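hey can u check if this looks right to u? its 363 residues, i copy pasted from the old doc so theres a chance i mangled smth
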Amino acid sequence: MKNVKILGRVSKEAPDVLFWTGSRYEMNVRAANLTVHIEAAYGMQEQWIAVVINGALLCRMPLLRGDNEVIIFRNRNAEETKNVRILKEVQPMPGDGEGYIRLTKVETDGTLEPVAEPKCRIQFIGDSITSGEGGIGANAEMDWVAQLFSGYDNYAYKTAEALSADYQVVSQSGWGVYCGYNNDIHSNVPGIYDAVCSLVSVDGKGVFGSLEPYDFEAFQPDVVVINLGTNDSGACNAEAYTDPETGRTYKLAKGEDGSLDAASAAAFDGAVRGFLAKLRSCHPQAYLLWVYGMLGTDMEEPILAAIRAYREESRDDRVDYLRLPDTKPGMFGSRWHPGHPAHESAAEVLTARIREILPGLAE
């Protein structure tokens, strides 16, 4: 197993357990046959994986609870080395039990060769877009099910592939930088950023170190891509949220001119600037790139204002903004979310921008 590369946020307690969308096991296999055993746990939302061989998606499947014996390939040319990636397709589902996958055994009649070093490292932070919700499935599909998530057909994966990058994803459907789509101020990504994966727990107890503080030194990205704001925008059109513990009510709202009212603008601005400061603390050398626009641009001006304010007060010039292409008719997947064409388009624009940020990357 020493030549199995594990990519994604993992704990020191269990470095082979994957929680997040896009996390993967990768290996270069010189063999005719390859079978793996993967342990899976979940409540209602099954864990899906994608099997990518030599860059091509060859299998997508749900896992059963417990041990899964998965044939990756059989009767192949034993002298050729195949790059194999086993990709976790599903985000952590809060309240759905343990929610993880774990590679426990690799069986082959050949050898596992070392995996090449990446040209750069990227971290993607976001919401349902970055989690790949609706990235697969027919336009009419509206069910909230794990089957309709894709970590493979996703702008994050596509961007990393184009740049020969290793990457991490920290994303959660319905969440924002200040609040969720329903004004729930507990549904903010900065609040879960410091832990390995605090969304996965049972009765308040961590699973395989999920509640541990994450060791940021384990993965220092060259670029951090933040794709947040879509759900904060949605909150402006949603009912107010009352915190059941404090009784306090929260509501992002717009004024008559369509812009955020003063109180909402201040709250959102503080959340953006606070998160940028946290990211800089965790990743001192990374370029912070806020991206937005695949499902509207309502929050673009508040985001830009917060970035300008942060840059001025911190003197940090390695922070910028990039608008991603809108998802137009014909580009949607399921659940009214971006589909394959939209993720392709976003990845092209983002890849070009990262090449500018990291000029040492060859085409």
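DSSP finds six helices and 19 strands in the chain.
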